[in-house]
Amino acid sequence: MKKIYVSADPVQCGWLESLLQASNIECLVRNRFLGGAIGELPINEAWPEIWVVNDNDEARAESVIADALAPLLVTEDWRCAGCQEWVEGQFGSCWQCGHVRESNPAA
């Protein structure tokens, strides 16, 4: 078994767990319910951790997680190719015309 991801957000860990399971990667979330122990335990030791059961799935699981989290990365503001409006970097489509950003500058 290998630990592949740690987050302070238990909801995000649950979402990533479901994506891994949908990709036929057997995994489990440790520390899922330790949030209430923060203060008694060091904060980062109470964070949920995602572990893959089969070590051979590690690279594929990391790829699934990276692909899932990529749109969440904050990037620089960008100009819409459809209407020339400036859009904040975290958005993948223009708020004014709905045009989808063609490339991710952070990629």
SSE layout:
Layout: E1 2-6, H1 10-22, E2 27-30, E3 49-52, H2 58-69, E4 78-79, E5 86-87
Antiparallel strand pairs: 1-3, 2-3, 4-5
Architecture overview:
- With 107 residues, the protein is an alpha+beta fold.
- It folds into 2 domains: 2-72, 2-Layer Sandwich (Alpha-Beta Plaits), CATH 3.30.70; 73-107, SH3 type barrels.
- The chain has 2 helices and 5 strands, in the order βαββαββ.
- It has a 3-stranded antiparallel β-sheet with strand order 1-3-2, with helices on one face.
- The longest helix is centred in the first third of the chain and has 13 residues, at 10-22.
- The radius of gyration is 18 Å and the shape is elongated.
- The two termini are 30 Å apart.
String of helices and strands: EHEEHEE
Care to count the β-strands? 5
Order of adjacent strands in the largest pleated sheet:
1-3-2
Q: What is the end-to-end distance?
A: 30 Å
- Please state the second-level CATH architecture of the largest domain: 2-Layer Sandwich
Sheet/helix structural class: alpha+beta
Total helix count?
2
What would the CATH topology of the largest domain be?
A: Alpha-Beta Plaits
Mean pLDDT: 87
- Structurally, how many domains make up the residues? 2
Q: Roughly what percent helix?
A: 10-25%
Major β-sheet annotation: 3 strands, antiparallel
Based on Cα principal axes, name the global outline.
elongated
CATH domain class name of the largest domain: Alpha Beta
Rounded to the nearest angstrom, the radius of gyration is 18 Å
Low-pLDDT stretches are none
Proportion of strand residues: 15-25%
